[in-house]
User: Which sequence fits this backbone?
C-alpha cells in the first residue's frame, strides 16, 4: 500500500455543513480514510493553527477550504492553506462564490453589526464583541480574490457523491471532471414548453408532481444553475434555489436567472414586480460577492 | 480609464446603449440623418433584438465603469422576432429592482421603446438619460 496522502481541511466562517456532507460518505469513508493523513482539521483532529503554520510550504498535498473569509483570522487561514497545500480546493458555495454569508454584503458592516449585536428584537444597546474574537473584515470578498484555487467544488453543501468522486479522483491522480449541465438536465419532471401564467411563492397552490416546477410558476432556478447535484431538490418536489451557482464559472448567476425567467414568463413589468418580491435575495442568494453586481458593491465599500 | 483619471471638472458621462437592429438602431440612424441634436455621450452597440441583451451585459457595463446604460428596442407588439422585447421588458422589471436593491441609482439605467421612424423619440430618451446620469455624477466616484 502506498503512503497516505497528507490532507488539510480549513474552515472559514460557515455553517460547517460541507464537512458534514463529507462525513456523509458513510461507509465510503472506510475505504478513503486509511489513504489520508489528516494534517489539519479544526473540528475533528487535534491540530492547532500553529501546527499548520509550522509545516513546510507545499508539504500538504490536498487542502479543502470551506466557508468564506468574514474575519481576519479566516483570511489568515485561507492564505496559510494556500501556502501549505499543493492543490487547494474551494469546497462548497461559500468558498467558491461567497454563498449565503455573502448576502451580508447587501448591507454595510455597521448595519450588519446593528442587527446582530447592537439593536434587535432581543438586544437593546448591545456592543460588538472585541475580546477573544478575531476582528471582522469590512466586507465579504470572494475567496478567490485572496488566493488562487485549483479546483472549485460548489454546492450548499456539495453532495456526498461529488465529494466521493472528487476524493477518489485526487487519490488516483485523475482530473476531476464535473459535467457542465444545468439542473434541468437531470430533472425528471415534464416540460410542456408553455409560458408561465403567473409567478407563485413556494407556499401557494399545490404543485403537479410530474410537471416542471418553473412552468407551474414556482421560482425554480434549475435552468440557470449548475447541475452537479443531479437535481436532488426538484426531483424531490422543491424548487431549485441555485446553490451550485452558474453553469460555467463566474458569470453573474442572478443575471442569468433573470434572463431565464424573462424567457419562461414574459409578463408585464408591474406583474413581474408584484409577483417576484425580492430579486436580489432570490437570484443572488449564493453568488453575490463573486457576481458583477456584488463586485460593484465591494468597490463602493472600498471607496468609503 | 483609471479611477484617478476621472476628474469631476472635465468628466463627461459615458453611456452604453444597446439598440435593436430593427427599430432603435434605425431610429438612431434617422435621428442622425434628420440632424436631430442629442448628446454625444452615448456609445451605441447594435444587437439583433433587445431580447438578446442579457441582464449581465448591463451589470458588466456598469462594473467596468460605464456611468449609465440604455436599452432601446421596438415597441411591445412590434418585435421583429415576435416576443424578444416582451422578454426584455419582464427581465428589466426584475433587473431594475435588483439594481436598486444593490444600492445603484435606478436613474443610471433606462429601457425605452423607439421605432425606426421615431428619431426624435430616440434622441429625447438619450437626452433624458444623459441629464439624469450627469446629475448622478461619475459612477466610479462612489459606485452608487
Assistant:
Amino acid at each position: 500500500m502506498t503512503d497516505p496522502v497528507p490532507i488539510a481541511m480549513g474552515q472559514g466562517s460557515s455553517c460547517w455543513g460541507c464537512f458534514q456532507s463529507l462525513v456523509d460518505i458513510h461507509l465510503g469513508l472506510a475505504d478513503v480514510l486509511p489513504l489520508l493523513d489528516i494534517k489539519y482539521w479544526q473540528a475533528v483532529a487535534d491540530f492547532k493553527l500553529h501546527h499548520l503554520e509550522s509545516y513546510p510550504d507545499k508539504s500538504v498535498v490536498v487542502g479543502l477550504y470551506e466557508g468564506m473569509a468574514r474575519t481576519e483570522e479566516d483570511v489568515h487561514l485561507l492564505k496559510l492553506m494556500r501556502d501549505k497545500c499543493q492543490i487547494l480546493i474551494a469546497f462548497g458555495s461559500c468558498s467558491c462564490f461567497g454563498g449565503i454569508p455573502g448576502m451580508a454584503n447587501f448591507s454595510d458592516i455597521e448595519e450588519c453589526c446593528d442587527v446582530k449585536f447592537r439593536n434587535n428584537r432581543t438586544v437593546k444597546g448591545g456592543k460588538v464583541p472585541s475580546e477573544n474574537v478575531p476582528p471582522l473584515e469590512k466586507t465579504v470578498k470572494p475567496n478567490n480574490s485572496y488566493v488562487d484555487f485549483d479546483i472549485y467544488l460548489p454546492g450548499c453543501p456539495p453532495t456526498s457523491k461529488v465529494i466521493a468522486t472528487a476524493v477518489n479522483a485526487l487519490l488516483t491522480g485523475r482530473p476531476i471532471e464535473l459535467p457542465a449541465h444545468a439542473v434541468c438536465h437531470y430533472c425528471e419532471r415534464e416540460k410542456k414548453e408553455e409560458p408561465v401564467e403567473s409567478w407563485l411563492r413556494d407556499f401557494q397552490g399545490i404543485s403537479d408532481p410530474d410537471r416542471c416546477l418553473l412552468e407551474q410558476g414556482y421560482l425554480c432556478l434549475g435552468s440557470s444553475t449548475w447541475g452537479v447535484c443531479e437535481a436532488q431538490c426538484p426531483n424531490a418536489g422543491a424548487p431549485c434555489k441555485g446553490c451550485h451557482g452558474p453553469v460555467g464559472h463566474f458569470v453573474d448567476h442572478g443575471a442569468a436567472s433573470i434572463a431565464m425567467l424573462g424567457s419562461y414568463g414574459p409578463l408585464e413589468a408591474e406583474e413581474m414586480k408584484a409577483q417576484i418580491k425580492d430579486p436580489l435575495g432570490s437570484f443572488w442568494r449564493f453568488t453575490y460577492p463573486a457576481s458583477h453586481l456584488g463586485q460593484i458593491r465591494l468597490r463602493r465599500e472600498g471607496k468609503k | 480609464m483609471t479611477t484617478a483619471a476621472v476628474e469631476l471638472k472635465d468628466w463627461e458621462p459615458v453611456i452604453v446603449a444597446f439598440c435593436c437592429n430593427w427599430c432603435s438602431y434605425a431610429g438612431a440612424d434617422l435621428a442622425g440623418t434628420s440632424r436631430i441634436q442629442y448628446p454625444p455621450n452615448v456609445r451605441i452597440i447594435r444587437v439583433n433584438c433587445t431580447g438578446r441583451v442579457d441582464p449581465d451585459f448591463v451589470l458588466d457595463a456598469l462594473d467596468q465603469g460605464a456611468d449609465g446604460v440604455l436599452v432601446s428596442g421596438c415597441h411591445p407588439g412590434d418585435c421583429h422576432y415576435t416576443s424578444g422585447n416582451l422578454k426584455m421588458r419582464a427581465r428589466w422589471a426584475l433587473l431594475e429592482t435588483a439594481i436598486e436593491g444593490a444600492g445603484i441609482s435606478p436613474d443610471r439605467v433606462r429601457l425605452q421603446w423607439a421605432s425606426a421612424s421615431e428619431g426624435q423619440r430616440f434622441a429625447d430618451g438619450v437626452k433624458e438619460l444623459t441629464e439624469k446620469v450627469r446629475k448622478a455624477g461619475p459612477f466610479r466616484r462612489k459606485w452608487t
In short: The first strand of chain A starts at residue 5 and ends at 11. The CA atoms of residues 178 and 228 of chain A lie 7 Å apart. Chain A has a mean pLDDT of 91. DSSP finds twelve helices and seven strands in chain A.
